[in-house]
Amino acid sequence: MADNWYEQKQNNSLGYFLMLKCLKILPSWLFRFFALFVGFFYWTFSKNARRFSRMYFSNLGRRGSSLKHIACFAVNLVEDVQSWAGKLNFSNVEWQGTDVHNLVSDIDTGKGAVIVISHLGNAQMLKGLASMGESGTKRRMSITTISDANISAGFNALLNQVNSDSSFHIVSSNDIGPETILLLQERLENGEVVVIAGDRVSAHTDRNIKINFLGKEANFPYGVFLMISLLNSPTYFVNGMRHKDFALDAKYDMYVKKCPVDFGCKRSERDGRIREAAECYARNLEELCRIHPYQWYNFFDFWGGQD
To answer: Is the pTM of this model over 0.90?
Structure first.
């Protein structure tokens, strides 16, 4: 396994295909139980995954089991597929934070919103619920996700098989340009939602933001927060977390925090505001890592090998 996330082989179409077949055959609780064996297999044969898990817990300042950590990750992969297959019930989700009312209001009134997710907790839950009309909003959420098409092609193909009727669009992060920003602005003006992950740096640029995260400097993607500043729409940090690390019939918390940074500023002030937004995002991740330490799913050298 490589040290950078984008150097890892994440486009395992056969694995996704087998997960879909198992989901159709097995009851949900048994599918989750089976995932624990997959996690044990991965833990046994992936030395680097164990190493990066220990690195994370060391920076978190607590003892942790790499086996439990990786098993939680395996369960999360199952939940990703279940989210899109309509196997997660909206009634099992509890919304956390007063900012959720602002998010719902922005969507219901047609303002649109930018949602910044992460690989902490279930990154697919909100999108899956929205695709099923289960988001709790009066207006159906039409979602555009920005992701690396080369990395996620296998998973995207799986989504089309699971839920071909979803109001879900993909924009490749490799092709971002002025025309892309105009497209996203148009979709936001139409009351749609733009979703992007804020905890993965790009393979195509060296421009990142160094932020103290869990006691050490880590790189966060400058481009993501630059895009947020250019779109200048209501922006929220959203994380779907299991109440318990392991449960055959899981309950979830959906944490929603509005980004407090105002990008209606002079161009000379924009870089400072971009850093401020990235720091708010990182502080929110830190807080949730301490609440749900085993639901952090970045199994690579997140701190870039810095001493």
So the answer is: no
